[in-house]
Amino acid sequence: MQHNKVLILDFGSQYTQLIARRVRELNIYCEIHPFNKIPVDSESYKAVILSGSPNSVRGESVLHPDLSQIRGKKPLLAVCYGAQYLAHFSGGLVEESNSREYGRAHLSYIKQDEDFFTGITKGSQVWMSHSDTIKQLPTNAVLIASTHDVENAAFKIAGETTYGIQYHPEVYHSTDGGQLLQNFLVHIAKVEQDWTPQSFVEESVDTLKETLGNDKVVLGLSGGVDSSVAAMLLHKAIGKNLYCIFVNNGLLRKDEYTSVLQQYEGMGLNVKGVDASARFLDALASISDPELKRKAIGRTFIEVFDDEAHAIKDVKWLAQGTIYPDVIESVSATGGPSATIKSHHNVGGLPDFMKLKVVEPLKALFKDEVRRVGKSMGMDPNILGRHPFPGPGLAIRILGDITPEKVRILQDVDAIFIENLKSWNLYDKVWQAGAILLPVHSVGVMGDERTYEKCVALRAVESTDGMTADWVNLPYEFLQKTSNQIINKVKGVNRVVYDISSKPPATIEWE
Ligand SMILES: Nc1ncnc2c1ncn2[C@@H]1O[C@H](COP(=O)(O)OP(=O)(O)OP(=O)(O)O)[C@@H](O)[C@H]1O
Ligand SMILES: O=c1[nH]c(=O)c2[nH+]cn([C@@H]3O[C@H](COP(=O)(O)O)[C@@H](O)[C@H]3O)c2[nH]1
Ligand SMILES: NC(=O)CC[C@H](N)C(=O)O
Ligand SMILES: [Mg+2]
């Protein structure tokens, strides 16, 4: 079945992914493409949204796509830069605004009987983020909304289903933003809301059957949400031809290797556990630099995987749990190089010598959608609700070099922290949590004796996608009990601290 789909053209706004999420929340499928790479089958999209941009339509940094196949031919919604772009190139006037406008504003005027604003009333809060402003609309444009400071806050082009808005309906602080997107997509553009987890599962299974036929597929299973859901989908499509490999890299959480293997047993999956702890710890011996650690782990994963794949006769495909943010993070609208903050390990990017074709059934989904898809296949909520856990595992939470003793200490500390979060009903309220072993010794006193032992940090963050995050305000009493338990029970630790840094400027992991 061909879905109704919406095209989002990205001009590099920090909010472009949010536009996609809000559209998907309406059960409408959408794709983000760079503004200068409009898909050749653009006629197959039912509506188009132009994103905002850090650039300006004035001067040299203008981003100028050819919209001749789109404009006037299908419903078009232009947000912020998009709206300025429409105005500027259709005879309007865009100028630098006297005062830059960021944050909260309220609609002070809405044109009567305007379908675009059905269900939205004067006073509605909207979120602004711009320094240019549309001083004058094109002559064929009709003003449909204003705020106190921005007269031309929304307009439509007469005779077309083309709309421009200066504010950002995609950010959650625009209170009626979801309603506005629904008005535009469902009522004006008549896009059907047919994108549901059930339909996704049915169609993916059909497509996978067709693509993979009778071929064998190997999948790296981590116990995490993404690879587990990918495994279930593939299992539905190809059954016994799916070979899952779960690697113990010696850097998993306490007892995770056995508990995850047990969890998978109940799901009917064909999972092979490979205990490669010694190989990973060897590869990491005396390495302290974070990037070198990540590289050593990535390399060892590939070696282990290569060995295992060779043991399966005639395997043709490698399946991966890649999700949408992984895909779009690597596409930059303006093509500029972005800085490497951390080399994320992935069993992806396999070297050519492995000669496997890659299949990625979740590559169009956001994390919350992956969870919904898993739920619709009846998967264990304990797997779906798990906090994300990085592939390099505890290696990037042990600052400095790694020894089996340090791994054991951190596993014990982490287990107490996570167990307590669960028993205090805090686990599901936190997006990700873990402990970090610091390369610091400090003086303490235990039973009247001087100690000189290790210090651990606890970190718990809230986030939607890991791109930005804030530390969680955990109850003092919880922190008090947890710290006490850790120091009393884990030998070698005499001090616990709590990380109160947001991302940015810190990252979630310490390495
Ligand atoms: N211990 C492991 N054994 C086998 N494959 C692994 C292991 N750790 C990671 N991988 C592979 O690396 C991929 C990337 O890991 P990542 O942590 O981003 O995703 P995930 O574990 O599936 O989900 P989550 O983000 O919820 O942890 C996984 O999908 C999996 O294919
Ligand atoms: O599979 C992974 N391989 C990695 O190399 C890796 N590094 C960080 N992470 C996870 O990504 C999210 C963002 O982490 P940072 O703020 O530390 O960059 C957080 O959820 C991290 O746990 C990784 N996941
Ligand atoms: N958020 C945006 O799209 C901003 C557009 C333009 N760069 C401005 O500052 O007005
Ligand atoms: Mg993981």
Automatic annotation (TrEMBL):
Function: Catalyzes the synthesis of GMP from XMP.
Subunit note: Homodimer.
Positions that bind ATP: 222-228
Protein's UniProt name: GMP synthase [glutamine-hydrolyzing]
Enzyme class, first EC level, given as a word: ligase
Active site: 80 (nucleophile), 168, 170
GO cellular component: cytosol
EC number: 6.3.5.2
Single GO MF descriptor: ATP binding
Residues annotated as domain GMPS ATP-PPase: 195-386
Matches recorded under NCBIfam families: guaA_Cterm (TIGR00884), guaA_Nterm (TIGR00888), PRK00074.1 (NF000848)
Reactions this protein catalyses: XMP + L-glutamine + ATP + H2O = GMP + L-glutamate + AMP + diphosphate + 2 H(+)
Entry keyword set: ATP-binding, Glutamine amidotransferase, GMP biosynthesis, Ligase, Nucleotide-binding, Purine biosynthesis
Short name of any one Pfam family annotated for the protein: GMP_synt_C
Pathway: Purine metabolism; GMP biosynthesis; GMP from XMP (L-Gln route): step 1/1
